[in-house]
Amino acid sequence: MYTLYWSHNSAxxxxxxxxxxxxxxxxxxxxDMAEEAHKKPEFLKVNPAGKLPALKxxxxxxxxxxxxxxxxxxxxFPQAGLAxxxxxxxxxxxxxxxxxxxxxLQPAMLRYYYPERITTxxxxxxxxxxxxxxxxxxxxxxxxxxxxxxxxxxxxxxxxAADPLLYMLSTWQECCPDLYKRFPSVxxxxxxxxxxxxxxxxxxxxxxxxxxx
Length: 213
Ligand SMILES: N[C@@H](CCC(=O)N[C@@H](CS)C(=O)NCC(=O)O)C(=O)O
Prior knowledge:
- The protein folds into 2 domains: 2-80, Glutaredoxin (3-Layer(aba) Sandwich), CATH 3.40.30; 91-197, Glutathione S-transferase Yfyf (Class Pi), Chain A, domain 2.
- Helix 1 (12-22) links the parallel strand 1 and strand 2.
- It has a 4-stranded mixed sheet, covered by helices on one side.
- The mean pLDDT is 97.
- The chain is of the alpha+beta class.
- It has helices at 12-22, 41-44, 66-76, 91-113, 125-150, 162-170, 179-182, 184-194, 197-203; strands at residues 2-6, 26-30, 54-56, 62-64.
- Glutathione binds next to helix 4.
């Protein structure tokens, strides 16, 4: 049994989508970020960094990082087809997108949401957020151009674990207002992912609404 430590609308959502999509046996432990439960001693025993998500593995041990969790689950349940195999020509682009989303887009978003961690200037947070917003819009613009040309998914017609990760990030719109209006190919992907039965089953409990215009 896998155990996912999660909270609504957090980075745990993509990991949750993958577990549900492949039909993995899992249970959930809510670590309510609104209640600061991720900073309490009980959760710090699970992930000393105090961040979500964390996944306890059936063989023992815990991993963190939503892209790593998505990749591990996709690889362990190959019949679900969420990850091209190592020798598949799409494996490279798959890994590239997974890492790009986790390693480039998401950190820009975290700079927006936690600007006080980036600057020692008392009045510096507004500038950090403004720069982060510009960077995030530029990144979405490049992703949108890729999807317009090669979509509807990141790997063309092939759905993969990178898509629910992209979908999750596309729902964090305070840092990129009107994202779906500005980036219609991202919206098209979001609609397709949100309509998948496995995603639809758990989106609401994660407080992710329908894809709005
Ligand atoms: N790169 C990590 C980021 C994890 C992360 O920053 N999660 C946020 C929730 S969206 C969090 O736990 N924030 C609490 C904090 O940083 O104090 C991942 O993808 O799992």
